[in-house]
Write a structure and sequence with these properties.
The chain has one helix and three strands; from the N terminus they run βββα. It has about 60 residues and is mainly beta. It comes from Zooshikella harenae.
């Protein structure tokens, strides 16, 4: 029997428009990044946590 300690990171995702923490995963962007949808009825914004400028990646 292996005695291993596993650590799990928990990240709370907040909407970048209204600040609500009730969000839903809605799939992946074309670049493979996780997309989220704010469940606030007045907001309903979809967003990605990690935006990357593709031009800087090409250099």
């Amino acid at each position: 029997m292996l005695n291993e300690i596993m650590f799990v990171a928990v990240v709370t995702v907040f909407c970048n428009k209204c600040g609500n923490n009730k969000v839903k995963k809605i799939g992946l962007s074309p670049q493979g990044k996780q997309r989220y949808l704010c469940k606030n009825q007045e907001c309903k914004k979809s967003f990605i946590l990690d935006y990357t400028n593709n031009e800087t990646l090409k250099k």
